[in-house]
Write a structure and sequence with these properties.
Blueprint lengths: L1 H25 L7 H21 L3 H6 L3 E27 L4 E27 L2 H8 L6 E3 L1 E3 L15 E7 L8 E3 L3 E5 L2
Parallel strand pairs: 4-5
Antiparallel strand pairs: 1-2, 2-5, 2-7, 3-6
Length: about 190
């Protein structure tokens, strides 16, 4: 009896910590602090170079797109019955000029544990889809093409709802590479 009470208390405590974390991260600004912006941009360039090196045909897909987001580092965490993804990215238009910042913050439910990180590239097929993102009205889910350099290269991802998504491991990938588009937020450069 004592161990089940102890587990219940621990689950309640972990749920409370998780809820506080979500409240804190949901209040975060899309734009990184001024002191962090140059490192996010530099890390984004490194991540983009990695993707274009590992995915044959990606350079052509980017050249024909309306724009893209590069997230140099997304944290993915799981705490027993809850988890999520969070990270900041740099948004570029079709001329590869930075037009803004992106923020991803998505909670998930279900049995999960651990924390891992990955980089992610989101490519917008056309101006309509890019505009929906810039107006924070993009919805739906897209399965990501997982790119793992140590296991060979991946081909270009197909567009789903006007979006193609690539994920590359930093410390490993959690199963179920799917991205909820409505959890991405845009903020234009000031």
């Amino acid at each position: 009896m004592r161990s089940s009470t102890h587990r219940l208390v621990m689950n309640m405590l972990l749920t409370a910590v998780f809820a506080l974390f979500l409240i804190h991260t949901s209040a975060c600004s899309t734009t990184p602090d001024a002191k962090d912006q140059s490192s996010v941009i530099a890390d984004g360039r490194t991540a983009l170079n990695w993707f274009t090196r590992e995915v044959p045909g990606l350079e052509s897909q980017l050249a024909n797109s309306a724009g893209y987001i590069i997230y140099p580092g997304i944290g993915q965490y799981g705490i027993l019955i809850g988890g999520g993804k969070f990270g900041r990215g740099v948004v570029y238009n079709s001329q590869r000029r930075q037009v803004g910042w992106a923020y991803l913050n998505a909670a998930s439910a279900g049995l999960q544990i651990g924390a891992q990180g990955f980089k992610m590239l989101v490519v917008f097929q056309n101006a309509t889809t890019m505009s929906e993102f810039e107006n924070n009205k993009l919805t739906g889910d897209v399965g990501a093409t997982v790119v793992a350099a140590d296991k060979g290269t991946a081909g270009t991802a197909s567009f789903t709802n006007g979006v193609a998504v690539y994920q590359g491991g930093q410390t490993g990938l959690m199963a179920g590479a799917s991205v909820g588009l409505d959890y991405m937020r845009f903020e234009a450069i000031q």
